[in-house]
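Lecture 7, part B: from sequences to assemblies.

Below are the input chains for today's worked example.
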Amino acid sequence: MEYLGSNAAASPQGVFVICRYLSGFDKGLNEGELRLELQALRTLATGSDDAAAVFTDSLSVASGLGIVGSDSKQRLRVVEDVFREGLRAEGDTWSWFRGRLLHRIAQRGLDQLEADGKLPDLVLALAWLLQMDPLNPLALDWGAGPEPVVRGLNFEAVANSTQWRGLQRWALALGLARRADVGNAKVLVADASTAIEDQIWALPADAPADRWLEELRRQVPMLGSRRILAQLPSGRSWDAVPLGLVLGLHKLEKAKRLALEPSDDGSHVVPIGLSTNPRQVGRILVRSER
Amino acid sequence: MTGQSMSRFRCWSAESIASTVFSDIGALSGDADAVFLAAHTPMALEHVKGEQLSDGLAGEQLVLDVLLGSVGDLERNTLVAITGSSGVGKSHVVRWVHAHLPEDDPRYRVMYVPRAVQTLRELLRRIIDALPGAGGTELMSRVDEAIANIRPGELQDRLVNEMKVALDWTLEERVSVDGESAEQAVAREERNTLLGAVDELTGGRVDGLADLLDLPQVKESLMRPEGRLNALVTSYFDQSSNREHDDIFSPEDLPLRKRGVRQALAGQPDLAELWNLIAQQPEMALELLEESLRVALPKAIGLRAASGETLESLFLASRRALREEGKELVLVFEDLAQFGLVDADLYNQFATPPGDDLAPLRVVFAVTDGAYNRMDRTVQTRVAHRFKVGDSVLADPAQFVGRYLNLIRVGREEVERLRPQGTDASGASDWMTNACETLEEGRPCRFRDECFAGFGSVTIDGLGDVGLYPYNHEALERAVRKLDKDPTPRDVLDECVSTNLKEADVHIGNGTYPHERTRDQFQFQTRMGKDALLAQFPSSDPERSYRALVIWGNEAALPRGIVTAFNLEENLVAPRSSTGLKTWAEPDDTAAPPVPKQESPLLPLFQWQNDDELPEADVVTLRDTLLRLTTDRLRLEDSLVHVYSGHGKQLLGELFNVTSFVLEGARGRQAGGESLRFEISRRPEDVRVLLAARWFRDHGHFDPERAKWEWPEGYESDQLMLELESRLDHWAGVVREKFLETTGGSRPAQFAVGLTALCLSARGVDFKARDLAEVLKPTVGQGPSPSEAWQAVDEIAGRFLSSIAAADYVAEFAAVRQGETGKAQLVDPGDLNRAISVFRAEPEASLTRVIQMSVDPVLVNWAQEFLSALEAAAPNAVEEVQRDFAMTVEALEGQTPASVGHKADEVGRLANNAGVFRPSDAWVEFSKAVDLLEAASPWTGEPPGTGVDALLRHQSDIRQMRQQARALSVIQRAMVETRKECERANVMTGNVASLKEAVKEQAAESRRLVRELAGGEPNDSN
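Predicted structure of the full complex, as C-alpha cells:
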C-alpha cells in the first residue's frame, strides 16, 4: 500500500474521523451514507472540493490497514473491534488512536516487506526522517533543504514537494516530529517523544537499555529496526538509535517520564546522545504517569 | 596581611586616600604642591590662540613658557586662559604652573588664588594680602559690614532693590554701531524696549523691566529658594567652590507659567505688553537681569561705595608700587569663576595697560568654556594665549589612576618629605618614588612579583612599573566605563580611586571582596550566561566568585594572585572543562582570528540576568518567538480545532498571546483575567530557554559552526535545544489543555449547530432530529407566519440564521483541515448530531448551558437574546395558541380539517353554482382556505406541554394549526352568509344543516387539544 503516492490525500485525522464515526454503528454503515455525513461541508463555502479525495484516500488507508472492514453483502463499512472499543471510550481517544495507528502502519509495513519485498513509502520516509539530526533540522520548504538531500540519496519514497508535505502531515500527526515557523526557523524537527510515549503501555517498566529499545522498535520499527534501515538508500550509514529517537528519549527523561540510567556492569549499554559525547545508557525505566 | 601570603593584603588605607586624593583641587590647600605634583598626569593642551615660539614644549610646560616668556615686556599685559569643560583638569594645569614658578625670581611678584579659596571675604583677603603696598583695610571693613552681619535673605532682597536701581537709573540704552548685523540690531532694540521709557520729569525709567520686578509673582520667582539668585547669594556665605554655572538666570527665574501676572498688570497696558514680549521670548530679559545684577552686586556687598577703596584702586596702587620696584605682577587664578559677578574690577585691570607708573600683569587663569565665551569682549580680545584642555588624561586610565595608586601607597607625609624644597622645587620632576619598589624600607614590596603577575602593572614616566592592585586592567576599564559616557578626571578620582579603594580596603580585609556593591561600581557587561560561567567554576560562594570572574576575569579564569589576594576559591584559577573558556595560562592571542559575525543579540539577555532592564525590542522579539514556537506545536488540529483564523484564533488569542510570557522585570502589558501566564525569571534555566529560543529564531538550527552571531559561550548546543524543546512542549501542553477545557474542543461547533437548530424550529421549519446537513444549509427556511406574540422570537431567529453560519463553526471546531487551501475537508458528525438532538429536546436548558459555559462570546450573546425573547413571548404565545385552537375546535366540530375542507368545498361549489355563495367576492379566499384544510395533516395528538420548550418544539405544528384556524374562520363566515342567502332564497337548506352536523363531530377532539396546549388535563370539561 502507498500512502504518499496513490493515497496522497489521506491523513491520520481523516482515518480517525472515519473510524470514530463508524465506531458508533455496531453493524456498520453504508459507504454512501458515511461519505455524505462526513462531507457535510463539501457543498458549502467553508468546505473544500478536495474533501472527496481526503475521504476516499483516508478510507482506503483505513481499509488497507485493516482497521475498517466491509460487509460485502450489505456493502456496509465496519470498524475493527479493537478500534471500535477504543474509540468509544471516554476522554482523549485521539492519542490512543494515534499510538495504535502508528503501530498498525509499522506492522502492515513489515508484512508488506515480507510479502512484496518492499516497504510502504510512508514507513520508509518516516524511518529516514527520524535519522535526521534535530540540531540541524530539515527546512519546511521542499527546495530549501529536503530536495537536495533526497536527490543526493536517490531516495524515492519522498519524490516531490507534495509527498514532502504529506510526510510532514503524517510525521507531525503521529508524534514523530515538531514543526517551527518563526524567523529563520522554518523547519521540521525529528522528535519521537510523543510516539514513544504513545507506546509506553506496551513497553517494559524497567529493562536493560538495549532490550527496552528493541521492544520499542518492535512497536515502531521505524525507530531503528534493522529490517527497515536495510531498505534505506545505501551510501551512508543509518543509526540504530536514530537522532529523532535520541531527542525523544531525552525529552521524556527531562519530563520525568523515563529514566535513562548508566549500567552497573557495562553490559547492555547503548550510547545515546545528540552531540559527539553520547551518554552510555544501561537501563531504561518507565516512571509513573505525570 | 597574614604572613607571607598576599591574602587580604592592602597597600593603602582609607586615611591615606583621604590625605592624598583630592578630586576637586579646590579642596587641596595651596601649600600642598607636593601631593598635587606627585600624582599629576601631564595634560595634553590644545593651543588654540596665541603664537608658539618655543619648539618641543607642550602641555603645562608650554603654558609656563608663554607666561614667563613675556616677562620684561613693559608695553603690555599678558593674559593666558586655560579653558575646558567642568572637571577636565583646568585648575590642575594652573596649579602645576604655579608650582613651577620660581618663587624667588626678582623680576616679578606672584599673587596666587587657589580654588581652595571659598568665600568672597577670603578671596578679598587673599588679594589684599598678596598686593604689595595696597592697603585694603577699609575695603575689607566695608565688605565685612555688608556681608558678615546679615542673613542671605536680606542680601538677596538688597540685591533685587539694587537691580531695580540699575535698571531704572544706571544702565544706558544702547545705540547702533557700525557693522551691526540685523540680528544684533533686533537684540539691541529689544534690550532698549525692556529697559522702558525715560520719564521726562524724573529722568528715570518707567514701564520697563524694573517695574515688573515690583510684581509679587516676579519677585517670588526670582528669589525662590531653588533659584539662581539664591544660589549665588548662598555661595558667598557657604564653603562651596562650585560656581561654574554657564548662565546666571534661567527661564525658571521668571513666573512665565504662573497665573495672576496679567491680572496684576490690568490697567497698565504698556507693562502688560512688555510682559507678553517676555513671556514669548524671555532670553533678552534674562540677559538684562544679569546685566543689572553685575551692577548691583558690588554695591550690595560693599565692594563699591561713593568713595574710598575699591578692588580697582587697590590693584592700581599695588601696580604703581611694583612699577617703582621694577617688578611685574604675576596673577595665578585656579578658577576665575571664583570672582563670579565681582570680576569687573579684575577685568578692568586686565584691560588697563602698563605704563611708566603701572607694572605689567602676567595672568594665567582657568575658566570654563561657557564662562570664557561670555567674558566681556574687551577682556577676551586681550587674551594672548588660550589653551584648551581635552580629556586626554583619561585616554589611558591606567596611567592616570596608577599615579594616584602610587601616591596613596607612598602617603602624604612621605610625599612631602620627598619633594625638594626651595630653589630645586620648581624644576625637579623625578623626585617621586614608586611604592612598589620601595615599600619595604626602600626595598620592593614583598608581593611585587605575585601582585604584578596577578593584577598587572602600568609603566609611568618617572616612576617605572606601578602595580594596579586592587585593579587589573580589565577591572579598571570596567570601573571607568561604569561612569558617565564622558567621565571627567574628577569623576574617575571620586569613584574609581576614593570610593572603590576605601570599600576595597574594608572588604579585602574581611575576605569578602568583591562585595555585592561592586556590581554597581564596575560595568557588569557579560557575554555569557551566569550558569554557564559558574558551571566552569563551581563555587561555594557563587555570587562573589561570579563578580570576580566577570570584573577581573572578563568571564575567564582568574590569575592566582587575584584569587589569593581576594581570598577566593582556588578553582577560579582554571575552568573545570575546556569548552572554549580561556585559562590564565592560555592567552587568547594564540587563538585563530575570529570569523567576523553579527553582534550577538544575547548580550542584553545576559545583562538582564544580572538585573539590568531588558530592552523593549528584545522583550517583544522574545515574546513573539516563544508565542509562535509554542503555537506551532499546539496540535489542536488533532482535536479537529482550527486556530489559525476565525473564531478559533480569537478564542486562542484571548487565552494565550504575547502577554502570556511574563519576563521578570520587563516592561509591557501582562496577561490578566483568564489568560494564561508563563512566568520567566532570571534563573539560569529560564535564561537558557530564552537564549535558545533567540538562537533558534535567528538560525533555524543549533549548529554553532554555522553561526551568524557568536554561539553563547559555555553552553552545549544539544543541551540548549533540549531545554527549549522541553519547555515549549510543556507550554504547548498547558495551552492545549486549557484551550480544550475552556472551549470543550468541538463545543463551539455543537453550540452553533444547536442554536441554529433552535432558530430553525423557532421559524417553524421542520427537520429531522439528527439532520446536520439541514442545519448547515446556508439558506434559511421559514414555515407559516408566526403569531403576534411570537414575532419577536421569529425576528431574532431570522437574524441569527442570517448572521451566524454554523458551518463556519463546524469547519473551525469539528473538521479535518488539510491540503493546499487549508479548508475543512471532513466533518466528524457524531457530536454535532447529538448536539442537535439535545438542543431540540431541551431548548431552554441548552440555551442556558450556552450562556453559562461562556465558550464563545458571540454565541453567548445570541443565546441570551434568544432566550430572553422566548421567555418574554411565551405567556402571550400560549394564550394565542389556546385561542386559535379553541376556535379551530369549535369550527371543526369534531371532524378532521381535510374532511371539513372537502365538505366545505362541496357545499361552496353548489352554492357558488347556484349563485347564492356569499360573500360573493370571497370565493377566491374561500377556495384557498379549502385547499389549505384539505392539504393539512391531522393533529398527531402528542401533548406539547407548556412553556418555552413546547412552543419551540411544536412551532411548526402551532403555525399550521393557526393557519387552519384562519381557514376555518373564512369557511365559517362564508357558510353563515351563504346560509342566510339560501334561507332568503329557500334553497339547499338540507345540505347546509348536514354540513353543520359534520363539523360538530370534531369539536370534542379539538377541545382536548386546546386544553393540552394550555396545560390543562385532557379530560377537563368546559
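Note for the exam: The radius of gyration of chain A is 20 Å. Keep this in mind when comparing with the next example.
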